[in-house]
Design goal:
Oligomer: single chain
Distance between the termini: 32 Å
Structural class: alpha+beta
Number of helices: 23
Number of strands: 21
Radius of gyration: 34 Å
Strand order of the largest sheet: 3-4-2-14-20-17-19-18
Helix content: 55-70%
Largest sheet: 8 strands, antiparallel
Strand content: 15-25%
Length: 768
Amino acid sequence: MCVVALSLYVALTQTARLGLDLRGGTHIVLETKDSPTVAADAASTDRALEVLRQRVDALGVAEPGLARSGEKRIIVELPGVQDPRKAAEVIGRTAQLTVHPVTGESPDPGEAKPAADGARTLADPDRPGNHLVLGPTALSGTGVKDAEARLDPQSLAGWTVSLDFHGKAGDAWARVTGEAACAPQGAPERRVAIALDDKIISAPDVNPDVACEVGITGGETQITGGFSQTEARDLAALVKGGALPVPVDIVEQRTVGPTLGADAIAASTQAALIGIALTALFITVVYRLLGFLAALALALYGLISYAALVALGATLTLPGLAGFVLAIGMAVDANVLVFERAREEYLGHPGVRSGDLAKPVRTGFAKAWSAVIDSNVTTLLAAGLLFFFATGPVKGFGVTLCIGVLASMVTALVITRALADFAVARAFVRGRPALTGIASTGRVRTWLARRDPDLVRHRRRWLGASALLVAVAVAGITLRGLDFGVEFTGGRLVEYSTSRSVDADTARAAVSDAGFPRAVVQESGEGDISVRTERLTDDEQRRVKAALEKSGGTVTVERDELIGPSLGAELRQKALIALGIAVAAQLIYLSVRFRWTLAAAAVSAMVHDVLLVVGLFAWLGKPIDSVFLAAVLTVIGYSVNDTVVVFDRVREGRRRDPRADLAAVANRAVVQTLPRTVNTGMGALFILTALAVLGGDSLADFSLALIAGVVVGMASTVFTAVPIAVALERRSPAAPPSGRGDRAAEVPDSYSPLEARRKKERGTGAVV
């Protein structure tokens, strides 16, 4: 109750921090580079971060986010900024401000690199085609104490930038202007040049009233240059923030329009509510009173996990929102495991049917404990890899999935148990055991009792079918290839929304006429157009937008993603590392919890599932991006999760009778857990189908991958993992049991609801 009360308080008093993909804005990743004098390391990156923070603050962006990522990268988040070109120009410039005496003029540009003392030749901003020869640097931007954009209506100079110098810098300014004042009127030597990043932004003549060798005193001056209000404000922000200690390159840039973010929130929320309602209704129909209590616990799970997300200050992204919803579907699994165990205990012990419902419920929780822990740990391993190896919004998916899995364990093993213990202790419920849902066999178990299937007997046939499916998937990957998204290849992807309907062919022709015949132009979402190219500058992007306006009317940028080639290669490498570590981590953990043969079989089935999902996307031509990587890692967790539940029964059966034939034990484990597999899969599919249908274009491919993974994962447990485990055990059998194992073999199997069903047909009216 304390946890629920605290969660309710946090949820009511605090709000979740939304990612830019949900509220709109610009996300920029900068990478620092070595300069001739300063190495790009953690210290110089931190100094650059502080400079950038001052620049962003001066731009007036509400609630900006800046943080160092790794040793050389800086993540900048600018909510509400829809023009990435402007943001990048202000944020990414080195902004090295220098002041020079002018020593002469030249028609030639001179050397590209400045001399050691800063002397150079640069273009004259007042006379096109002319160049000014600049002397050594007199002072730099480090001497500027403050910079402010001002409008001077008296001098009719328009917008100017007022500079205030520190003490010694003020003396240097007086000295350089005093020397210039000694030159005759009209001579180039009477000018003082103010340069920013190898470009003269202002080169005014010193006024006649300035005395020779005295200069402009007072420690302040003005930069004039015919600036607009925006230009003057941006220049003041650059000068005030100071120069970056090291140059920076933009390696990633994402822009999401506010409309797209709002639509994503509305669609995902609707999908979540419908999916959760269907899941709650399903488990209530199946498990009746206990199912209703589990649905109530799921509602509390949502409250606890949301409060944890808010309390930790985590950012809720669109994939993170999907992970939050998906975890609800996976949270059903723990409840189903417990209820199926309780049902088995009740049906397998006729003496319990006198009305003592508490014992089978307690036993169900006790026996399901190991399977719940193992299955959730495998999911946490996959979610943890997403957190460490993913970037951007997908990292939020790993965070919310981790929180969701932990919260689901708390609700299933603590809250659901407390509610169930309270309910079965009531006299009204004890007198009506059918009300609880555990007193009925269920339709799936009834069907299994009638058929008595021996699924493991045809294991070679199942393995052959699995091998055929893998061959089809590999053929798709080989023949069709994988359509890697811009995150893995580098390049730029821009999604435009048009006021008039434009088909892909018309848009493709317009983009080609704009100078990009090799661009990939596709229809995206509801009437949107996506344009993907290897290289596209901000100016070129605006040119493409103008070309689309001719046939599409008003065009707005809904999404804009720019990934540098170095980052794309890095993300590809991280994706492969994440998948490799996922396989190794699952194998190591399962080898510790089970015998190596079972661990190898589980991992083989997991690889089988991943190949089928990847092959499906290859045949369908769907993009392979970071969101797909999140789906694949989730499929890995789910696949192993399902297999672990079956192998937990196999382990239990072998402990009970170590000399029993593994094929018979495995077949019995499959039959025993099949109702749980069906019920859990249905719970997850309700959520995923709602996300696929109602979650919008952003989540459609994500949901498709997970739906395929859930279906394939349920099948591969029975038709791939178990046959491989039996084959490996026969090749490398376990050590013969000890004497204690012989005694254990004499203990009769305490549970056999299927045998009880065969002995006495019971019309239960169960739904499952």
